[in-house]
Amino acid sequence: MMLLDEIKKMGAFDVNACFSCGVCTATCPLSENGDEFPRKMIRYAMVGLEKELLSSPQLWECYYCGECTKSCPREADPGGFMMAARRYAITRYSIGKIGKVFYNKTVAPLIYVFLSVFSLIGILLISRDPAGAVIFTVPEVYIHLAGLVLGAFVIVIAIANTTVMYRYTTGKRRLTKNIKVWINSLIKIIINEVMVQERYSKCSDRLRRYAHLFVVWGFILLMIATTIDYITGARPLPGILLGFTGGIMIILGSGFFIYQRLKGREPYSHYSDFADWAFIILIFLAGCTGFLLDFLTGQYAAVIMYIHLTVVFDLIVTAPFTKFAHAIYRTFALWLKEVQIK
Q: How many whole angstroms separate alpha carbon 159 and alpha carbon 312?
């Protein structure tokens, strides 16, 4: 099957209408210094140059603001193509191409159902006293242990997937051997592109950038709060405040994206497949259920805790194969671009 046909399975777009006029590249606020995307990426797909497509850092520079799609005279939806191409790249980078199942419209829902049932059964099994009765609480020691195991799983898979990406991306490129340049470049990318998302500010949709930042910083604050709780063995005020703030930010950020997708007015929300909805709904539920746990007690709190832990389990296990992977691949692609010898 042709490369373009494979990519088209990853999203609804009509890039066949493209006649390479270059309007999308001229319109894109992030296409600069000879990067020439999305036009170059589209041409790679049309002529079947898979290796060139998968090795291009430009694939990950796009934030899908939709300006290219709005300006395309042929309505070829270049923004939709870039999104679908990134999904395709995730499936190709993943070990054993496992990522492919999460973008299969039939298999993906079944995978999420299986993961949820598996998680819930595990939670119920450990929520019992020595006599076998359900005690409507989950011992923190098990939560921390599960967190460490799942964290290790994600790190191992992420490293393996990134190694595959590295092999694709480096190819014929010459990278500097100066360790100081590598370190300084990584720090620069983490601050500018992960924590501040400076390049995103060039896109016209500022609200979307802020919502994106809310989700990112929400997770960062929650990770810090969880670490504080784990180290202290309690819930000190700083951890509570950070967790509360992070939860609110995640709810607001993910809620914005759900609202935008329901409206369907922006190019990036015209088409949403199961992977898009599963990801954003799980993030929203994680924020809401975590927030409610601070106010509920008794059996109500237990039910919300079961839902929260199941949702978080689904998010963590699928992280290396869904949109969470964008954060890793985008950071890594921009990093390699910085240390490339021009």
A: 21
How big is the chain by its Cα radius of gyration, in Å?
Answer: 21
Q: Would you give the end-to-end CA distance of the chain in angstroms?
A: 35
**CA-angle at 136, arms to 132 and 141, nearest 5°:** 85
Query: What phi, psi does 29 have (nearest 5°)?
Result: -70, -15
Quote the pTM value. Answer: 0.90
Q: What is the residue-wise DSSP string for 168-225?
A: HHHTT--B---HHHHHHHHHHHIIIIIIS-TGGGGSS-HHHHHHHHHHHHHHHHHHHH
C-beta neighbour count of 116 within 10 angstroms: 16
Which amino acid, residue 160?
A
What pLDDT is stored for residue 134 in this prediction?
52
Q: Which domains does the chain have, with CATH numbers?
A: 3-95 (1.10.1060.10), 99-338 (no CATH)
CA atoms within 13 A on the CB side of 212: 22
Pair 249, 49: CB distance under 8 Å: no
Instruction: Identify which of 27-31, 94-98, 194-198, 210-214 has the greatest average pLDDT.
Output: 210-214
Residue 86 scores a pLDDT above 70: yes
